[in-house]
Amino acid sequence: MAEEETSTRPEFPLGRVKKIMKLDKDINKINSEALHVITYSTELFLHFLAEKSAVVTVEKKRKTVNLDHLRTAVKRHQPTSDFLLDSLPLPAQPVKHTKSVSDKKAPPPPIGTRRIDDFFSKGKAKTDDSA
């Protein structure tokens, strides 16, 4: 009797996963079974992260998953937090505007330089370099 193969084809391209694995200088050859296991494991892990991030997104009553939601999901799962949290970029700090942009005056450009606005204005001739 022929043995039926119940496994499905992985969603990630095996060639790319293999290239990523070979970036490690300690790895010379990759067995096809090991490649499939790593590929499936990666898919499962990313599905897990996506699901947990989606839960956080719904809890915060948002429609789009962002970095903050991903960080919260990783923090809630201790095994994942132990190795992944340090690799995630820090969220951007919210900028507090006390004055509007038009209220602030831009500092003058350093001596010997021009603003980029001067470069793109059509009607003006070179004024700094004509001496």
Description:
The protein is mainly α and 131 residues long. 45% of the residues lie in helices and 0% in strands. It contains 5 helices and no strands. Helix 2 (32-59) packs across helix 3 (67-76). The longest helix is centred in the middle third of the chain and has 28 residues, at 32-59. The chain is extended, with a radius of gyration of 26 Å. The chain starts with 13 loop residues before the first helix and ends in an 11-residue tail after the last helix. The model has no long low-confidence stretch (mean pLDDT 78).
What labels would you give this structure?
mainly alpha; 5 helices; 131 residues; 45% helix
Q: What would a concise description of this structure say?
A:
Helices cover about 45% and strands about 0% of the residues. The chain is mainly alpha-helical.
Shape: extended
Q: Averaged pLDDT, please?
A: 78
Number of helices: 5
- Number of separate strands: 0
Element layout with pairings:
Layout: H1 14-22, H2 32-59, H3 67-76, H4 78-84, H5 116-120
